[in-house]
Amino acid sequence: MRRREFGMTEESEIREFLQEMTFGFLGTVGEDGWSRVTPLNFVYDGEVFYFHGSLAGEKMKHLARDPRVSFTVAKEYAIIPSYFTDPKQACPASAYFKSVMVRGLVEKVDDLEEKSKAFTLFMEKLQPEGGYAPITPQDPTYAGELKAVALCRIVPEAISAKFKFGQNLKEPKLSAVTSGLEQRGGELDTETIALMKKYCPAHHES
Fold first, then answer.
1. How large is the C-alpha radius of gyration of the chain?
2. 203 in helix, strand or coil?
3. Are 118 and 43 in contact, with CB atoms under 8 Å apart?
4. pTM
5. Which residues pair with 72 in a beta bridge?
6. Mean pLDDT by 10 residues, the chain (206 residues)
7. Judging by DSSP bridges, how do beta strands 49-53 and 150-164 pair with one another?
8. How distant, in Å, are the alpha carbons of 75, 90, 130, 144, 182 from that of 116?
9. For residue 81, how many C-alpha atoms fall within 13 Å in the half-sphere facing its CB?
10. In contact, 157 and 103? CB cutoff 8 Å
């Protein structure tokens, strides 16, 4: 059952998360009817998703036959053990995460100016410190590369997001999870606590 309280509709929150993440999972369907899920780097410009790859390959064959795809980006922040809130029952065990799910159509991009803009977005995300010449079709350094590489855009028909950070919990369980994370002190536990305080109504009421 999909928990309504975990749904995220705030566009700025979704876009911020997509900017933070560097890769997602592309779902395509082959001629034999079997699905294929491919991890790949992506960028999102606020309207479409871009990904690139070889002009030849199984995923490109899938897309040439059927441009319908699903695309998912997700990040797990913390595993929540059951004993944080219940000393016996296993059911409260959970995981806190953000995920964005996209359904849409893939279009191949041939325009070199659009390719340049898309690959500039990739570089700004993956190499924010710079250290490269601006990407333009007029630069002979890039002209051949831009023509040779396949760039695709996913035009979304639907985007849904789920941010799960204990929104379904009430006190004292919410404080028990927060306390458990504080004591554990894992790599992302402090960030998880901050996100719980941001998204959980019970935190604002207390």
1. 21
2. helix
3. yes
4. 0.91
5. 25, 101
6. 76 96 95 91 97 83 92 98 97 98 97 98 97 96 93 97 96 96 97 96 62
7. antiparallel
8. 28, 52, 16, 12, 45
9. 11
10. yes
